[in-house]
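>> received
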Amino acid sequence: MLLITISKVDRWGREKNFAKLVEALNYDDDEVRKAAALCLGRIGDTSLLETLEYALNNDSNMFVKKDIESAISLIKAKKYVQGKPIFNEEIINLQPVYSYQVKVGS
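>> returned
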């Protein structure tokens, strides 16, 4: 079996090496699986959602599951922001803002 370290997982995340990160989701070491899930979440590619959901349903460690859930949430948040504009000019009517200077102390 290939020896996978967290530093390798981090490098794969920076390189966006999906195949290696998905492979790391099945590794024996809990910390490696957690790191792989979080890297996938930071990458934010929606094509990875199904893989992460499968890993979530099949992992036995509750701490790994929490990080997989976090990764899924990150991807879904990025998908939402990328899919729709944050501000819709038809809905938001911006009002002018007034500033006041307040003297503190005497």
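>> Residues 85-92 have pLDDT under 50 and may be disordered.
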